[in-house]
Structure formats: C-alpha cells, structure tokens
Design goal:
- The protein is mainly beta.
- The chain has two domains: 92 residues, no CATH class; 62 residues, no CATH class.
- Helices cover 3% and strands 34% of the residues.
- The protein is built from one helix and eleven strands; from the N terminus they run E-E-H-E-E-E-E-E-E-E-E-E.
- Strand 8 and strand 9 form a beta hairpin.
- The longest helix is centred in the first third of the chain and has 5 residues.
- The protein is elongated and about 60 Å long.
C-alpha cells in the first residue's frame, strides 16, 4: 500500500490549489486522472529542494507549477523584490550574493533586502574577544540614545542597522 501526494493545479494560472494524499489501493485512478478542470501532478514529500528528478520542490499551496521545467516553485517569500528565482534549483534566492568574508555569519534580511549579521558589541566572549576581528571592521554605534533597543546588525559594507521596537 503506497501513499502518493498529488498537487491540484489551476490550468489558467498554474497555481497550486491543494495537495492531496492518495492511497494507491483505494484510489479510483480513472476518475482522478479524468478531472479535466485541473492539472494533477505528483509531488514528493521527501524531495530535496532543487533536485530535478523530484520536480525540484515539494508542491505547496500558493506555489506555482512551471510546466516547461516540470518544476514546482515555492510561493514567493520575499518582501518587495528582495528575492529572485534561481532557474537551476527553482528556489527563491536573495537578490545579492552572500558576502565572501565570513559568509556563515550572515543571514538574508528581506525587510532590508541585504545580508546582515547579528553583533553584540558588549558580549564578553563575543566577537571583540575573537580572532575574527582581524578579518572584519565594525563601525561605532550609539545605543545609549536609542529607545526600546533590542539589538543591532551590520551589513557587509559596514553599514549599521539598529533594531528597535516601534
């Protein structure tokens, strides 16, 4: 008894409307496949994102099916135009490349549309006490004058971004 997953796709927009789980032994495949109002495509829950043999991604409601590549594209996650579609993996990638200096310290921030890293200047045992300081330059900051201060981030170019609660 095999369990299979199928995406119900709108013919006009190619948008995934629903993902249905079917039991092979109990499914009337003739009725299922003869539904001409929608496109039905199998999707694979164990699909590793970006792998072509599994339609690149598991289908998700709100995502899109791209027939030319036989690929499911996840729903657009970014704010504004902060992400672009990678046509090799059919994943949404940040619109700027990850910094090459200490790349694992950075996370993409959709709100600011740039790579940022969390820094706590006064944290004992933090960056100020590590050998990493020889590789990065941190600009000064004036957190004493900030209301509701919750942290700070620095962009790869050294630009300071303060995080405050409105």
């Amino acid at each position: 008894m095999a369990i299979r997953h199928f995406a119900k796709i709108d013919k006009e927009t190619n948008q995934v409307l629903k993902v249905t789980i079917k039991n092979d032994s109990k499914t009337n495949w003739n009725a299922f496949e003869s539904d001409t109002d929608y496109i039905w495509k199998e999707t694979f829950p164990d699909a590793e994102p970006g792998i072509a043999s599994y339609r690149y991604n598991y289908a998700g409601v709100g995502g899109t099916y791209y027939a030319d590549a036989d690929a499911f594209i996840p729903e657009y996650p970014g704010i504004g135009t902060s992400r672009v579609l990678n046509t090799t993996t059919y994943q949404w990638d940040p619109s700027a490349p990850r910094p090459t200096t200490l790349p694992n310290l950075y996370e993409w921030n959709d709100e600011y549309c740039q790579w940022l890293t969390m820094i706590s200047p006064g944290n004992a045992g933090g960056f100020e006490n590590s050998d990493l300081l020889s590789e990065i330059t941190l600009p000064g900051n004036d957190i004493d004058n900030m209301n509701k201060y919750i942290g700070e981030q620095y962009a790869p170019d050294g630009t300071f971004v303060k995080l405050v609660i409105d």
